[in-house]
Amino acid sequence: EIYRCDWSSDVCSSDLNINNLRYLIVIFLFHLSEVILAQTNPVAEQIKNFYIHYMEAVGVGDRKIENGLVKDYLTPEMQKKLYRLITVTGSDPLLRAQDVSDYGIQSLTCRHLEGKWYEVSYLRTENDTASVQIPIRVDTDANGKIRIVYVTPYWGGNKYGDQIFDVRAKEIKDDVDGGIFVETFFKAYVYPYVTMSSTMEQDINQLRKTYCTAAMQKKYAILLQKSLEDENLLDPMIGCADFDAFWYKFIKISSLGKNCFMFSYNNGIDILNVNIKVSVKKLKGKYRISDLKTE
Question: Of the residues 37, 92, 197, 244, which has the maximum number of CB atoms within 10 A of its CB?
Answer without folding.
Answer: 244
